[in-house]
Hints:
This protein is mainly α. It has helices at residues 5-29, 34-51, 54-76, 82-91, 100-122, 145-162. It has one domain (5-162). The chain is globular. Keywords: Hydrolase, Membrane, Transmembrane, Transmembrane helix.
Amino acid sequence: MDISASAALWFLPFVAPICLYICYTDMRGMRIPNHAVIALVVVFALVGLIALPFDTYLWRYAHLAVVLLVGIALNAGGAVGAGDAKFAAAAAPLIHIGDLRLLMVLFAANLLGAFVAHRIGKHTGLRRLAPHWQSWNTGAKFPMGLALGGTLAIYLGLGVWFGR
């Protein structure tokens, strides 16, 4: 992995709880709240100053801008939800560009696993643990925050162990 283990270690304890919260809120209400996305940007803004070289830190804001523009376009086309696009943009500075291919594979695997787990939970006794979650009753819609948040947390966790 191209992310440094030290940067991943700095980010992980702050980012993982936000990722779990995003998974929870998206399953509960089919929404990724703005305050969680802002918290992710604030974590990068503060921790990134410590975790990354300053020139790298500044360039990572370009990742945020590019992913936000792509996300807005995809949202306008109906391909992704607005919260999903905002979360992806907020997460982009935390990801080393050299790990993009690995991240896509990780996201694909996590998306498949999250989808299957959500659908199984929807039709089993697990549903009784949270009977009022909107994600159980949305038909074909899926709480993408479950896969997005999980992917970012897993990426940083892997970065701690396998980062350079």
